[in-house]
Specification:
Helix content: 40-55%
Number of strands: 29
CATH topology of one domain: TIM Barrel
Radius of gyration: 37 Å
CATH architecture of one domain: Alpha-Beta Barrel
Shape: flat
CATH class of one domain: Alpha Beta
Strand content: 15-25%
Structural class: alpha+beta
Number of helices: 28
Length: 797
């Protein structure tokens, strides 16, 4: 018997069976005694987490109501204190928000109030919340009975201030306490064993699945609903923020958990769970664990026998594969299926050979074949296709703005993005095709499976769709766009070098056009690329040679029908190519970094011209200047603006800087500081092309912005079927609620203007009034007179 245990196989079998038997016995034994406490702890933890989540949810919902009421209190109609206008306003707004508010109310400083239901609803001078609000506080009242409706409510109220900052009234919204039923209902899992409700700081039940308990039961008082022991523990619930305990009630032992609700004066959410409900899952869990333990013994025994029966392979096999590897065969592998030391040696050898193969032929980060491996395979395929007179296509895929991803999220996430892109590319490549990492953020692939141009285009579209899906890492949502260039061997060269070069030119063309698209190579692309390079060279001397000039597009006040300012726009008159479109040269200025110098020249020139007009007696007006993201991100940007204003002696209030939504969102803390510094100087800030980015209202509450400029794409499509009308209306309403002016860009027709005016937009600009004109023509336009009408100004040519 002892001799038998010298066998590795028998030793493994014996040790495996004994280990699994002991493990299973301990597992079943411990689970029988620990399951109850574990399940109780889990349920307690789950209740605590769930309560905290719902408490925060209720608190956040109440905070939203306070913020909403504060915005209403600052609305022009409310501040007007016109009784009739306010009544109509209350009716309209309550219809919009009837799911949130039972009623909306307005009160003067003496407590006389009106609601959306009654113009003279009574007097609330004796209400506690009224005195708090008149001291300047926004409050959420304790539960009360509504005077006008007789319902159980709480009131969210905020002070109304006149222009001198004096409190002249109160605006509020009443919330039906029954509305909190939905919060309680979502938290409650099993009404048979659970009871969930909300109490105020005095212990009165103010929200319950049974409306008969609301403001009629108090946990400090014993009743049919409230047990004696619950009454004794009531002070504990009302005095600490969160906790749990077990009590005896008429229904048996119950676990009670509670959590304070944020943004309230001591409200708690309480849940009671019958301990009877715990024993059912405990019994089921014990039976399941016992069955699992038995299954583990049986399965483990079988696995141990199978594992032990694997015999070690002959040492000769290892010797042979070692000799093959020594001779340079990187495909040599040991076919070892044993689990002893020889098997370990074989697996280590295979791992070593796999690693050598990876280092030789594969990219370490993405796991794709490297450039050397790709070129070897491509040359073979090209030779084969040339001999068979078939076409082969090469595709280069380049990530757009990958450097920004690295800078924003770090190289670890950047590497993860590359690996994820590689994985998606691999899924889109057939078995006869090949994809490789070319360098950095570029990948290259060839398709040799007899695909024609149409099928390659279809495959490219699949790849674009696949790569554009969000990549999530460490809570970051990253959207990677790519540019793809394609070249065909039948048209663009039979040699690998030429084919890759042409695909690269097509890729660059795609990247320069719009990004996240593809281009198929043709000969004109090479010339266009040269032209773009030449244009970049010409830009370096354009400022020095005074080839830039500025035009001004008037800004018109819709209500007064007069010019109140203008937007300054950069133009380039090249001595070699004439006037060049801004869309052709401004992206090149940003790529080269020249936009910083040119942008400063534009700022200085516009300020100088505006001051000159004022000195000549023209009406003082605000001139807007567009700011590039590259320009704004410089640390000395604010200092540069100060220097220009000081140098030109222009008052800061006559300068408006237009920034995009993207600028404001890139680095909130840093950008917010710059914006506040500019606003403190008196400079106005406008958000340009609003509605096309990813703005957040939570950000705009903090940003010192003066106005929003609605992107012309929405204005131009007003008369078409779609959501543009709704979007424009929403932007104007949002802007006014935030105290911002709104400007519609690109107004070209009377119909567009009429719709914009109906929505209450403040200002417009567009070809209906005037195209961008020189400073001389703009000066003449102002001198003709302030009042204008559409179509009398220079029209679009």
């Amino acid at each position: 018997m002892l001799d038998g245990f010298k066998s590795i196989r028998k030793r493994f079998m014996f040790i495996g069976i004994i280990s699994i038997f002991l493990f299973s016995a301990i597992y079943v034994f411990s689970s029988s005694y620990l399951t109850t406490d574990i399940v109780k702890d889990l349920i307690s933890q789950d209740s605590s987490i769930s309560l905290k989540s719902h408490a925060n949810m209720i608190g956040n919902w109440l905070e939203e109501r306070i913020n909403e009421i504060e915005i209403y209190a600052n609305h022009p109609t409310i501040k007007s204190r016109d009784v009739n206008d306010i009544h109509e306003f209350l009716i309209t707004e309550q219809e919009k928000h009837h799911k949130k508010y039972l009623s909306l109310l307005f009160s003067d400083e003496e407590g006389n109030y009106q609601t959306n239901l009654y113009k003279e609803a009574g007097n609330i001078l004796d209400r506690e919340y009224f005195s708090q609000v008149m001291k300047g506080q926004s409050v959420l009242s304790n539960p009360i009975i509504a005077q006008s409706m007789g319902k159980e409510i709480c009131v969210v109220a905020a002070p109304i201030k006149d222009v001198q900052g004096e409190i002249v009234g109160l605006f509020g919204g009443s919330i039906d306490l029954n509305a909190f039923y939905s919060f309680v209902e979502r938290l409650q899992v099993d009404t048979k064993y659970e009871s969930t409700y909300i109490v105020d700081k005095a212990g009165e039940i103010i929200a319950h699945t049974n409306p008969n308990y609301i403001m009629k039961e108090n946990i400090r008082q014993s009743s049919e609903k409230v047990s004696q022991e619950m009454q004794e523990r009531a002070e504990e619930i009302l005095s600490i923020q969160e906790g749990s305990f077990v009590i005896n009630s008429n229904e048996g032992r119950r676990m009670v958990a509670f959590q304070q609700i944020p943004n309230t004066e001591g409200w708690r959410i309480v849940t009671e769970i019958s301990l009877k409900s715990l024993y059912q899952p405990i019994l089921k869990t014990r039976l399941a664990l016992g069955a699992i333990g038995l299954a583990l013994v049986l399965v483990g025994t079988v696995l141990a026998i199978v594992f032990a029966q694997k015999q070690s392979g002959p040492i000769v096999e290892l010797t042979e594969v070692f000799e093959r590897a020594t001779a340079g065969d990187l495909e040599a592998r040991a076919n070892i299926k044993y689990k002893d030391e020889i098997g370990k040696a074989g697996r280590s050898f295979n791992m070593m050979m796999d690693r050598m193969n990876e280092l030789t032929y594969y990219d370490a980060l993405t796991g794709l074949p490297n450039k050397q491996s790709f070129m070897d395979r491509l040359n073979k395929e090209l030779y084969k296709h040339k001999r068979e007179q078939k076409s082969l296509s090469v595709m280069i895929i380049s990530l757009n703005k990958f450097k920004q991803i690295n800078e924003a999220y770090g190289h670890n996430i950047g590497d993860y993005v590359l690996a994820k892109i590689a994985k998606r590319l691999r899924k889109n490549i057939g078995p006869q095709d090949m994809v490789s990492r070319l360098l950095g953020d570029e990948f290259i692939a060839f398709f040799s499976s007899g695909r024609d141009r149409r099928s390659i285009v279809a495959k490219t579209t699949e790849i674009l769709d696949s790569l554009s899906k969000v990549i999530i890492k460490e809570g970051h949502h990253i959207y990677a766009s790519v540019s793809i260039g394609i070249a065909f061997s039948s048209e663009d060269g039979q040699e690998a070098k030429n084919l890759i070069e042409n695909a690269s030119i097509a890729k660059s063309t795609a990247k320069y056009s719009e990004g996240n698209t593809y281009k198929i190579y043709h000969r004109d692309m090479r010339e266009r690329l040269k032209e773009r390079v030449n244009l970049s060279i010409m830009l370096h001397i354009a400022l020095e040679n005074k080839e830039y000039f500025i035009v001004y597009q008037p800004l018109v006040d819709v209500r007064k029908n007069q010019i109140i300012g203008a937007e300054a726009l950069l133009r380039w008159n090249s001595p070699h190519k004439g006037v060049i479109s801004p869309g052709a040269f401004i992206p090149l200025l940003e790529e080269s970094g020249l936009i910083v110098g040119v942008g400063e020249w534009v700022l200085r020139e516009v300020c100088r011209q505006n001051k000159l007009w004022q000195d000549e007696g023209l009406m003082p007006m605000v001139i807007s200047v567009n700011v590039s993201p590259i320009q704004f991100e410089r640390e000395d940007f604010v200092d540069r603006v100060k220097e220009v204003l000081k140098e030109t002696k222009l008052k800061a209030k006559y300068l408006q800087l237009e920034i995009t939504e993207g600028i404001a969102m890139q680095n909130t803390a840093d950008q917010l500081k710059k914006l506040h510094e500019l606003r403190n100087m008196g400079v106005k800030i406008a958000i340009d092309d609003f509605g096309t980015g990813y703005s957040s209202l939570s950000y705009f509450k903090e940003f010192p912005v003066s106005s929003l400029k609605i992107d012309q794409s929405f204005v131009q499509d007003i008369l078409k079927e779609g959501n543009d009308k709704a979007i424009i209306s929403a932007i104007i309403s949002m802007g006014h609620n935030l105290g911002l002016l709104t400007t519609a860009e690109g107004v070209e027709t009377e119909e567009q203007l009429e719709f914009i005016k109906e929505q209450g937009c403040d200002n417009v600009q567009g070809y209906l009034f005037s195209k961008p004109i020189t400073s001389e023509d703009f000066e003449k336009l102002i001198k003709y007179g302030k009042a204008i009408k559409p179509a009398i100004l220079p029209m679009k040519s």
